[in-house]
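## Example record

The block below lists the input lines for one assembly entry, exactly as stored, with component labels intact.
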Amino acid sequence: MKSIAELEAIRKRAQEGVKLRSEKGGVRVVVGMATCGIAAGARPVMMAFVEEINKRELKNVVITQTGCIGACRLEPMVEVYQGEEKITYVKLTAEDARKIVAEHLVNGRVVKECTIGAYEK
Amino acid sequence: MDLYRSHVLVCGGTGCASSESGRIIDNFNELLIEHGLDKEVKIVKTGCFGLCEAGPVVVVYPEGAFYSMIKVSDVPTIVEEHLLKGRIVTDLLYKDHTTSETMNSIDEVGFYKKQRRVALRNCGVINPESIEEYIAFDGYQALGNVLTEMSPNQVIDIVKRSGLRGRGGGGFPTGTKWEFTQKAVGDLKYVACNADEGDPGAFMDRSVLEGDPHAIVEAMAIAGYAVGASKGFVYVRAEYPIAVKRLQIAIDQAKENGLLGEDIFGTGFNFDMEIRLGAGAFVCGEETALIASIEGKRGMPRVRPPFPAVKGIFDKPTLLNNVETFANIPQIILKGAEWFASIGTEKSKGTKVFALAGKINNTGLLEIPMGTTLREAIYDVGGGIPNGKAFKAVQTGGPSGGCIPAEYLDTPIDYDNLIALGSMMGSGGMIVLDEDNCMVDVARFFLDFTEEESCGKCTPCREGTKRMHELLDKIVDGKGTMDDVAKLETLAKTIKGASLCGLGQTAPNPVLSTLKYFRHEYEAHVLDHKCPAGVCSALLQYLVVPDLCKKCGICAAKCPVNCISGVKGKEVYLIDQDKCIKCGACMDACPFKAIKKG
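Predicted structure tokens for the full assembly:
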């Protein structure tokens, strides 16, 4: 180690790897992963979220799973919690997931066409 | 570093490792691959979480779900339910002893609420075998700051102003020790870390080395810079294999990354360190004996002065600090002397790690601010005494400490208060005793230990501990006289005053403190030939209560020496007191509680 800058670079990189253990609050992306969700293809959707969020180095976002939300016909379903607000996305594909990360999580614009409201109209 | 959506932290400390946490980790890894989760979920082996009672401990992030007492057979459930389907397995979560409530998250557990973790901050949080994780939690920043921005005098000044005192037991001001070593004249100087943790039941140093070994490497390098040393030794007992392994990994990683070795951070400062293994002799925790052992000589203390700061390892000025003392250093540098001095009491700053054991619900490791009362430590953090028994005393400081009775439970814990009560901080052992413990027997237990561990160099300790032990044996056997009690007290005071090193000077403390606070128990053994707690077998009798006996014969069947006679269904059973070995098997076996101890 020849300089403080070098240490700082390692620290920045390494912090990404451990942020899960220290961060509280922020945005929660909850993927429905009961049998219905998995059968409808929730796993590739979740992996797309994981990859995209990591690629963009988004801080303060955690991805968790949940059981059956009850609307099995709309799976794969994902709910995004931000403060008091909750957005429910339905019938997602991996492509949709990447779009949600870019639009909703980064730019703060809800991807209307994927929400439960748009689908049920 | 790869990124994962979930981290599963499994305790790899000695406690949990001995209840198969290694196999639990292997099983997790196998099942993750089987379910195709190995790219999403990461298994991390950490150091001790502190709540050893609940071990093996598994914590799943981001939820912080706190699973306790996990068996290998529970792993598939956690993988299939929690990791695959996202449903927390409520049945396996930790339950609070006092409230019986299930705790979802590690942040809610009462055991951790009153704690303040400085020395243990990374234990149970990081993977101790990964330098990246240590760096992610601000590791080696303090070393960087010290080397590039501070002079050795400034470093010593911060440590002095922080008010940190030696955590190995002596309580000597750390900054002053650093200053002495810095000012000592010598062509070569050494920094040494005392990890020869010998008190029965104390394991804070082991846990720091197992859970956060890089903190010790960093702190020793800082100390080396401050006192002008370029070589460090860690003296650790060989019976701590996990601690030794992880510390060696940490030293190797630090060398690979240029954080040990030559020209660290391009400042021209050189520092290297190595581990010296001890064979586990208690006396080698004494600083001069430890130094002799590092030099390859027999571990025996010598007269001080000269102190190690002047004449230490190979007669060179040596700075010797305890593991926990070092573990505080990087935090003091990063957060400042004022921050550290704001925690604790007027004369004892910062936090202290205690190993809680004995009759206590939450057996384990806790770190609390100095000045926390014994009651808070035992009841709020420790969860109180199991099975509704009454508290009798708390033994602090291990074989060098004393027993503190219930009336002093509200004493704030610091170095000076504990000494005033006839005990000491020691390295931080805290053994809780309840109504079933006989204080004479407890004193005898510790004397047994110190007699065995006495190195034999000075007569007061070598002969004195043996004679004290004999007198205690006599009292416990019901053959003692009040003259023996008086002799015991005189002997104890003489040994305390005349011994060469800390071992002998403190060995009489368990006897003196029990004589001070529990003299009535000694008197009961001598005058009434009774052991009030029902522990000392020579003074015990097991008797069948004729009115309660249902003549079933279960007791006679259980008796290992066939000393219970009677006729099934017809005669009340009778115990032959001459043959009885007082094992208590009959009392445990009797379904009608017809056998009493008296």
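Chain B has a mean pLDDT of 93. The interface with chain A takes residues 1-7, 9, 36, 39-40, 61-63, 84-87, 125-126, 132-133, 135-138, 140-141, 144, 148, 257-259, 263-266 of chain B (CB under 8 Å).
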